[in-house]
Design a protein that fits this description.
- By secondary structure, the chain is of the alpha+beta class.
- The chain has helices spanning 2-29, 188-203, 214-218, 221-230, 234-239, 242-257, 263-274, 290-295, 299-322, 326-349; strands at 34-39, 43-44, 54-55, 58-62, 73-74, 77-78, 91-94, 105-112, 123-125, 128-130, 144-151, 160-163, 276-281, 284-289.
- The protein is built from ten helices and 14 strands.
- Strand 5 and strand 6 form a beta hairpin.
- Residues 38-51 have a biased composition (Polar residues).
Length: 350
Amino acid sequence: VAENARQVLEPAIATLTGRIAAVIGVAKAHPGGEKTRTAATKESNPAETAGTSAACPITFTMTAPLSKCDLTKIGGTPAAELSAELHAKRHVKLLPDNFFEPVALKVRALTKGTAATASNIGTNDNGHCHGNAAAGVLTSETNVLTAYITAEPGATQTATKQEHTKAAGNGGTCKDDNDDSSETKPTLKHTLHVICKARKFQETQQTRTTSEEGPTLASDGDMQNIARFLLFSPAEIAAIPVPEQATKIQEKIKSVYGDKNGEFKKNYLQPLQEKQLTFKLGLNQESKSINAIAQGSDAEIVLSYFLGQQYDRNQRKRANTTSPTKEEKTDAADKTGENKKEGDNKKTDS
């Protein structure tokens, strides 16, 4: 079950996380309204035009349409106040794919008077080129050349209702994915697909078994995962073809703990629950059953104690295999001395 969850939910999490990051990044980079504008010195007879003409270079700084994003809310509602409706809904609001494309910009170029003559638009302030007859007030100036720019994203910045699961009449199946789908390319189509997959996985989760009988537990996925590590070595599992592993694990469970009703409880569950473990909780020495430890509030502390004990054993074992202990060195020295003495005696005899 855990492995199935990883395979189904990880792509959904990665895709949605990537899409959130992309939406925030693009929204902050998209042009919003005009923030500031500056006009450079007018140009006489620019190359783009023929004959006597003039150009007014204008630079615009734009605002971002999204100033901040509150990730604690969904649709304006705090996420903690929302509940999952796995069966009732098959739509989600998402931005279209062209939200991630450059926004179209509309420029309005305005001219007034004899603006084609560069000498008549020599003043550039407030982001316009003009003749300074009225202190740059465009409605009163005689000669003006200027432009306005407006971002026109259309509907690309509006999330719309999108179907992620086909209607019940089609079996409630997921919509097709992109041919080149990837979590790093969270398109609308791919996002809808992984949402559906994650939703269907949650819907199909089976209730954990509470049976204490061997035949039932042997076919339980969680029990099989436990038995995989308890009853097999890594080499043994690797030697079994993958399609046959589930069957072999079930057979092993039955052979070790019993195949008849009552045997599994007697041979496995009761000893497991009743076995007493001694451990330290802080400075105090404790002795409790595994069942009591698992139900207690200090289960994680107790587990860390045993993990630490095992780590210490592994470290000492590794040290012993790499370098001789003090006792081993002494024994080796004694044997060397004995061998030397024996050799000297042989020389004397000869």
